[in-house]
Each structure stands twice: as C-alpha cells, then as structure tokens.
Amino acid sequence: MTDVEALTIGRVGVDLYPQQSGVGLADVESFAKSLGGTATNVAVAAARLGRRSAVLTKVGPDGFGDYVRTALADFGVDAQFVTTAPDLLTPVVFCELNPPADPPLLFYRAPIAPDLTLTEDEVPWDLVDAVPLLWVTGTGVSAEPGRATQRTILERRARRGHTVLDLDYRPMFWPDVETARAEIGWMVDHVNVVVGNRTEVQVAVGTADPDEAADRLLARGVRLAVIKRGAEGVLVATEYERWTVPPCRVDVVCGLGAGDGFGGALIHGLLSDWEPHRIATYANAAGALVASRLACADAMPTDAEIEELLCR
User: Fold this and answer.
1) Is 166 part of any domain?
2) Shortest CA distance to 52 belongs to which of 4, 7, 9?
3) Of 121, 159, 237, 262, whose CB is crowded by the most CB atoms within 10 A?
4) What's the domain range around 73?
C-alpha cells in the first residue's frame, strides 16, 4: 500500500455528455459516457502526470460499477479500494452543454450515493497513515455515514504529510449553506492545504474575497491556500507570501472537470516539492486545457501538454 503516492476519497460516477452542444437536455439526441466524480477525476489527473494514485470510494453492483473499475485501471489508477454498496446504484450525472463554460449538471444519486456510505471498516488505515498525500472533499461530509468516516480519517491523519481539502461545494447535496459551512469548516481545521473557488471559500470561511479568505484559512492552521478566481487567475497564499497567477486563455468547450485537472496538477506539484507559485501556474494551465476539451477523466492533460501551454 505504501507504493501509493496519492489517495483521493469521495465522489465517483458515470458522466453522460451530450453529443449536441448549446441545447437543453430535452433536445439532446445522444450521449457519450465517461468516468466522473471529483475525487475520481483528480486521481486520474494525477496518474496522467505519472503519479501513483488510488481512489477510496464505492459503487453499486451494476454495469456502471464494473465500468468504473475498468476505466480506473485503464487510466493507471489503483482501484483496489473501490468497494460495493449492495443495495445502491452507481451514480449517473447528465451534463448539459448550455452554457459550455458552466454546464448545468443533473445528478442521479438517490436515495444516497454509494460513496457517501463509506464506513470505517472499508478504510485502508495503513495507507491513510503512510500515504504522502491524502485528498478529501467537502461533498464527502454531506451525509452519514460518510461524514463520520471522513472525520475519523482526518483525526487519525492529524495533518501529516500533504492533507488536502478540495472544498467541492455542490448546493444540491446540502440542506442549507449553514450546515455545509459547519461540516466543511470542521474539515478546514484538520487539513494543511485547501483549494476552492470564491463561492466555495465563502461557504467554508464566510467571505468570497480571496485575500480575506486566505487570511482566515491560514489563521486556522492551513499552510497553503489556493483560491481559484476564474478569469482573474488563481491566488496562492502561505503564511509568508502570496501570489496571483494570471489565467491561461483558451477557447472553452466544457468547463466541467477543469477544477479536477487543476487538482491533479496540484497533487503533482506538491509531491514534487515545488514552490507554491510554480504549483499554481502549472495547475492553472492544466485546468485550462481540460476546459478546452469535452469530458473530464478522458480530458486530463499530460505533463508535455501542460508545459507546451506554459511556453506559449
């Protein structure tokens, strides 16, 4: 297990992308499937950059669950920690490419997604203790028993190594903002790297102002705050310095998955011991490349592709 460099925990599913852009779901004629889910896509993105990644999640006992395991293996992600919830279905997500930059999503996760039923008995505790980088998400604490399991994981991890929180706020998974702030805020106090956009940091720490949000995150023990600002670039902050990385200009095909490509590149930079400014610049380029393509997991860039965009 210690061969794994990055363990991501959380959402998995099958994304169904319309083959017609600019129309609503009612007018779509055909779809193509792709591996999806934030934690899963981040693991794929890291593997694409040569990192030994694994994902801890759950699927249903159905054909889509079989597809998830096969796709992960094909992408070079260790799937041995993907377990099965016997009475639930593997989640399916329909994407509407209208508008392409911020595609609406329709989640089929009822009555609950398998990944939110993760229990302590299904956690590889030796790996949690030893893995250089652990990646958790805000969505992972949106329901029980997954919430309690992830809390136990973070308490045991005790901010060792790189313990990263992807804020990953999806309002449809929460009863209200106050509940999300309480649960995600608890996670902030148990990690040392936080990444999210302005909406997500507002939920987590009560402000959308990037500099103020960074101040609040750092004051709570986070050592690296990464705040994505869309067309205004990325703010990256430590206790001693902060930088704003300008955006990479691309023609947007589908904004879905750009944050996950950013996340995989962030993992690569952290494990490479790069300086924060270099990490953010590299990750920003990775996210831009994904936004210029259709699909999530299949769209994750290689190191050569990222470096080519940086050199333009």
Assistant:
1) yes
2) 4
3) 262
4) 6-233
Six-digit token string for 286: 């990775």
In this prediction, residue 103 has a pLDDT band, given cuts at 50, 70 and 90, of confident
Locate tokens 């940091």: which residue?
Answer: 201
Q: Under a CB-based contact definition with an 8 Å cutoff, are residues 61 and 69 in contact?
A: no
Tens of pLDDT along 24-50?
888 888 988 999 999 999 999 999 999
Sequence letter at residue 148? A
Domain assignment of residue 66, yes or no? yes
CATH number of residue 166's parent domain: 3.40.1190.20
CA 1 – CA 201 distance, rounded (Å): 33
Widest pairwise Cα distance in the chain: 53
- Please state the domain count of the chain: 1
Q: Which two tokens stand for residue 5?
A: 């460099």
Cα end-to-end distance, the chain, whole Å = 39
Q: Tell me the residue type at 253.
A: V
pTM of the model: 0.94
